[in-house]
Amino acid sequence: MAAAAWASWHKALRGAVGFVRGVSCFYVVYNYGGFLSKVDGPSMFPTFTGRGDWVVAEALPGLSDRVQVGDVVISTRPIQADENIIKRVTAVQGQTVNVDKAGSIAPVQIQVPPGHVWLQGDNLILSRDSREYGPVPLALVKGRVVAQLWPSIKWVERKFK
Description:
Elements: H1 2-32, E1 35-40, E2 51-59, E3 72-77, E4 80-92, E5 96-99, E6 108-111, E7 116-120, H2 130-133, E8 136-137, E9 141-150, E10 154-155
């Protein structure tokens, strides 16, 4: 009987925690001009499944100086303006990245110019990112992803390995 009571209490507690997380996400959306976006494709695995994940992002117009290494951002794809991408910031202006270019013996060093960021997917093998199209202008960055709403509710951490 105690096990059944614990299971019932645990289920209710998990529901309450999920509710609080959801309300917190919508608080961010409401107060900071955020927006929802869908994640399709494997480039951000394991952070997102890429099978219809929904995320909430904090809008960044005029706040692009707040973008930091490790942030997951939503940006207009530089080579296809009608498409958005979701990638992680791996370098900001002034930082240098090493890029393995096809046919080169050693990695090529690229310094991120002022007003730009370097974006890469977490799943490097299946990601089309700055390694393909170079540094991305901050003007194309629309928002910073702060939480995942589906298939699970979780905060999206600023991390970079």
